[in-house]
Amino acid sequence: FAFSNGKDAIYGPVFQNNTHTMARIIETGIMESDSVNLRHIALMPTDELKADSLIKVLKGGADFGEIARNYSLADQSARLGGEVGWITRNALGQEIAEPAFSKGINEVFKVSSAQGIQIFQVKERTPARPKVKLAILERKISPSNLSYSKFYNEAKAFAGVVAADSKKFDEEAQKNGYVVRPSMELNKNTDNIDMIPQSRQVVRWAYENGQGAVSDVFDCDRNIYIVAKVNSINDKLYRSLEDVKPQLKSQIVKEKKSEILQNDLAEKLKVYPALDGLALAIGEEVKTATDVNFGTLQFGDAGTEPAVIGKISVLAANQVSKPIVGNSGVFVVEPLEKTENPIPFDAKAEAAQLDFRSTQALPYLIIQKLKDNYKVVDNRANFY
């Protein structure tokens, strides 16, 4: 809708996830980069004069990295010459984003706030892409107190029935039209179950009760009521073969299907070497994926397909590939057009980025090593 309509076009309303949504196109014809590569110097809020002096020196040709190492108060980035790295507009505050995406390459600018002063330099930006500005109106539909009471009482009645005979859990759930959701490998320190907010209480209950126990009703964020049952307890280091058998079977079936499809498509390609002819022969349609690059794992509407994207990168334009096994299927692809990144590869900047990531992960790695070496036992579950 956004890229195939003009200004003031309206979409919706549509109803999804308990929300009515409408959108209106406010502005079109915007050409803007997705991300910007920055470096910065952090100073105290009272260092306005020092900031102005540093900006004057930088504009005079001083080395930004050297100035950052000597004056920046942000220790981690200062050691890397002030490197912030690649960052998207949405990850920056408005005060930083506006100049970061509008200033020229190598230009410096200052942003002051109550937390401190920052001097930024724009190192590079990704090529500009077409964008639109949307206004979005959402109205969420919330249940009434009467609805909450109704469902809570139903959950309470269900818990009362299955508590007397836990073997009837699945049978009673099916009879009432409830969905039984298994939660495998539940660790005692798990924060929540299946991303359900405020469900830590269910985890705590599970570890305080034995196999076959059925819980009372848990009210999780007043949107979800849970009645839980402890199906099995594994106090060994690994799950049993019986437990993992469904997952293994699913993976083996997927691999075998992929192998059959791969061989079948390879044979058909000998007869129908063009994508249109192949699609017609197997009863499928040819789909187009745009902006395929190493910067994203997304391959059109097929989802995350890193193996497919990797194989595409070595194909010449208009060269039909051999069948490629991906996450969601087997693909035959043909690059219609290949564009080289105009920004040259900067080995030093890449090395600095890798160093920065390693530095960020180092505290966690040290803690894990200490836990392993000194046999530290995690007893946090006793307190929350």
- Structure annotation, total helices: 11
Strand content: 15-25%
Rg is 28 Å
Kindly report the average pLDDT value.
90
- Give the total of beta strands: 11
Class computed from helices, strands and strand pairing:
alpha+beta
Low-confidence stretches: none
User: What string gives the helices and strands in order?
Assistant: EEEHHHEHEEEHHHEEHHHEEH
Biggest β-sheet: strands ordered side by side in the sheet = 4-3-6-5
Q: What share of the residues lie within helices?
A: 25-40%
Estimate the global geometry from the Cα principal axes: globular
CA distance, first residue to last residue: 47 Å
Largest sheet: 4 strands, antiparallel
SSE layout and pairing:
Layout: E1 10-16, E2 19-32, E3 35-43, H1 48-59, H2 64-71, H3 75-79, E4 83-88, H4 94-100, E5 108-113, E6 116-125, E7 129-140, H5 145-164, H6 169-176, H7 200-208, E8 218-220, E9 224-226, H8 241-271, H9 275-282, H10 306-312, E10 324-325, E11 330-331, H11 347-373
Antiparallel strand pairs: 1-2, 2-7, 3-4, 3-6, 5-6, 8-9, 10-11
